[in-house]
Amino acid sequence: MSSRSHAGSETSTTARVWVSQRKDEWEAAEVVHRTMEAIEVILSGSKQRRTFDLTQTAVVPRNPAHLEGTHDLVTLQFLDEPNILHNLRVRHKSEEIYTNTGPILIAINPWRTLDIYSAQFMDKYNSSHLDRVGMCKQYYVGRCNGVGTKHI
């Protein structure tokens, strides 16, 4: 993200953001200009240039493009409603219906039959996979390396 200051409280920035004027509706955008009172963006979907009053609009940072569709939400830079929903949408569109959030597995119903019951596919989401990527099984059984008490 680059930024330069202007007179007073204005900045000109290139940043990826989510904007929302209505509950549960987020639009991807690129910031063109921002002051303390307003933000001017180019909406990613329509390429339309719009100015929003910041007292009436929620604006949150959007994750970098290289993180979109990640298999584990913990790796996202920004872990909030619009970024989580977007990541799940990207994965669902690419037929990746399972997404981890650390030791938690989220499944999105594809509303169609998928070939997901092969041993190879199930092994991909097996809890032992988390051990290979540095997660402790204690989240599943309440013990790590045979020591400790059950937490779940």
Tell me what the structure shows.
This protein has 2 domains: 2-61, SH3 type barrels, CATH 2.30.30; 65-141, no CATH class. Helices cover 19% and strands 32% of the residues. It is built from 4 helices and 9 strands. Strand 8 (98-101) and strand 9 (104-107) form a beta hairpin.
Layout of SSEs?
Layout: E1 2-5, E2 11-14, E3 16-22, E4 25-34, E5 38-43, E6 49-53, E7 58-61, H1 81-93, E8 98-101, E9 104-107, H2 119-124, H3 127-132, H4 138-141
Antiparallel strand pairs: 1-2, 3-4, 3-7, 4-5, 5-6, 8-9
Broad shape: elongated
Mean pLDDT: 79
**First CA to last CA: what distance?**
42 Å
Number of domains: 2
- Whole-angstrom Rg: 20 Å
The portion of residues assigned to helices is 10-25%
- How many strands in all? 9
Count of DSSP-assigned helices: 4
Q: What is the succession of H and E elements? A: EEEEEEEHEEHHH
Percent of residues in beta strands: 25-35%
Uncertain spans = 1-13, 133-152
